[in-house]
Amino acid sequence: MTQRHAVIIGGGIGGLCAAIGLRKAGLRVTVLERAREFTDIGAGITLWPNALRGLDALGLGGRIAPLLMPQAAGKLRDHTGRWLTRWDADRVERAFGRPLLAIHRAQLLDLLRDALPADTVHPGVEVTDVDRAGTVRWNGGEVGADLVVGADGIHSTVRTVCWPDHPGAAYCGSTGFRAVVDLPDRRELSGVIGKGVEIGLVPLTGERLYWYIAERAPRGTRHDDRRAHLLRLFAAWPEPIPELIERTPEHAIMQHDLLALDSPLPSYVAGRVALLGDAAHAMPPFLGQGGCQAIEDAVVLAASLAQPDVGAGLREYDRRRRPRSQAIARQSARAGRMGSQLANPIAVAVRNAAIRLLPPAMTARAAVKPAQWSAPTIGTG
Ligand SMILES: Cc1cc2nc3c(=O)[nH]c(=O)nc-3n(C[C@H](O)[C@H](O)[C@H](O)COP(=O)(O)OP(=O)(O)OC[C@H]3O[C@@H](n4cnc5c(N)ncnc54)[C@H](O)[C@@H]3O)c2cc1C
């Protein structure tokens, strides 16, 4: 059999994992990435046990281990500082054999690129068109492939071209702020939740802390001085929140409106084209599973493509990935609506009382359940 060629559009977490997996399955791989340079500032990302199993299946488990920061516990307070729940991160490890971990996104992307031969990823190539027969076009070039993977993120060109009736990404009602600061001696994941707003603190290796905020706001809300806005918003919140914002430089704070695909796609496959990651099922970040699902997609795609018939492999990929990833996207949206997006004071009081009364294992269940996933074996490796 002649070696099959896969062209992957997008060199983010999903595209790079797909490249690694498809090479492992015996395909020749080309990754086309719009960005000219890899200067990711990024922030942190949590990796649940399902993602770690996926990274193991890609053969990356050993290499990534030193970069991962285990989260010692999960604690949640309300905006007055009252404890709502504390869930034992050991429970995650006991249940899944792996802890909840976090990594700096730029380190993860560097590691994934380093796992590929130097001529695999082509930066500065913005794909403008694809067709179901496997032709990929960009300004000044085109290439034919046995398999085209649209891993081009939430505003996917591949999705727009192949699924023209899909409405695309919608605003989920909250805007997100993120930053990484130097902060030694922190090992616990913790969060504080208020009316329409939450902040999460996630320790990273290198004595750094990643924080993220989701704040209900009209789409497109921007502030001349993000730090000043956050200092005002959190002025009366318990420590260390005000201090943390205080010590975060304005230039380190990123803001993005949180978007998701509200309308689930009827298929992740069209002819020789497959979608994965945010292009297929972008979800709000309330469960920290978007990137984990992109890793799962990549592993399952590679395992499905180990069979010689591309069409059959893609049908298997769609069958195995669409129900699970779309269910997790729905759970993620629900977690936001029932969690930090609640702004009505009575609803917030009921939510907080329920969290306090329920056993921690039950409150953690929504977050922990998606971690139940076993990775298939890819090819002969
Ligand atoms: C605030 C926030 C917090 C999050 N936290 C977590 C978390 O803790 N854990 C987790 O698992 N997930 C998290 N996520 C989700 C996660 O970031 C995404 O699900 C993940 O990055 C998706 O990866 P991807 O490769 O599919 O897409 P992307 O990361 O968007 O990559 C797409 C790539 O395609 C390129 N591209 C786009 N268009 C083209 C084109 N036409 N031609 C060529 N290249 C193109 C882009 O430049 C980019 O490099 C979070 C998301 C947000 C917004």
From TrEMBL:
Gene3D superfamilies on file:
FAD/NAD(P)-binding domain
Q: A GO molecular function for this record?
A: monooxygenase activity
Keyword Iron included in the entry's annotation: no
Which keywords describe this protein according to UniProt? Monooxygenase, Oxidoreductase
The yes or no answer to whether the keyword Oxidoreductase is present is yes
Top-level taxon of the source organism: Bacteria
Q: Where is the FAD-binding domain?
A: 6-331
PANTHER family assigned: MONOOXYGENASE, PUTATIVE (AFU_ORTHOLOGUE AFUA_6G14510)-RELATED
Name recorded for this polypeptide: 2-polyprenyl-6-methoxyphenol hydroxylase-like FAD-dependent oxidoreductase
